[in-house]
Amino acid sequence: MRKISQSFMDSDVVVYMSPVIFGHYSSNIKNIIDRLLQNELPFMLTRSDGSTGNAVRYEEHPKQIVLGYGNQLSAEDVQLFKDITMKHRKSFDVMVYQGTDGDITEALGRVKLGKVGGEL
Q1: What pairs with residue 45 in β-bridges?
Q2: Would you say 21 and 29 are in contact if contact means Cβ atoms under 8 Å apart?
Q3: CA angle 87, 66, 102 (to 5 degrees)
Q4: CA of residue 99 relative to chain centroid, distance
Q5: Quick one: which H or E segment has residue 9?
Q6: Distance linking the first and last C-alpha atoms of the chain
Q7: What is the Cα–Cα distance from 45 to 32, expressed in whole angstroms?
Q8: Are the C-beta atoms of residues 81 and 53 closer than 8 Å to each other?
Q9: Could you tell me the residue ranges of all domains in the chain?
């Protein structure tokens, strides 16, 4: 896990792809995100919106994009996926893929890539 964590921190961008399951990302993606908690400090901070999150350990970390996908997703599932993901990880860009490959390529092209700083 140490090598994976180091590769993660050396990356500029990390993209997670997950099926949208009842408005959430998969348990496999949740497990990966949880395993990378070692790159954060082991205490919680209260954010300005009242939610809590781990304090950052490093000044910079990779830009992280969560890409949800699924066939015939309801508008509620899409919104729930975005809301829950953004509530837990302020720095994530969240997208839901329901269109053509060109649509997602265009959407990804609008994302500013590179390391970011600030709260996770």
Answers
A1: 53
A2: no
A3: 135
A4: 20
A5: helix 2-10
A6: 20
A7: 22
A8: no
A9: 2-41+61-117
Q: Which CATH number fits domain 2-41+61-117: 3.40.50.360, 3.10.20.90, 3.10.310.10, 2.40.110.10?
A: 3.40.50.360
pLDDT at 119: 63
The alpha-carbon radius of gyration of the chain (Å, integer) is 15
Q: What is the pLDDT of residues 68-114, one digit of tens each?
A: 988 888 999 999 999 988 887 777 888 888 877 777 777 777 777 77
The model's pTM is 0.78
Among 59, 55, 34, 50, CA closest to 87? 50
- Taken in order 69, 74, 78, 83, the sign of the CA dihedral is negative
Which backbone phi and psi does 16 adopt, to 5 degrees?
-105, 130
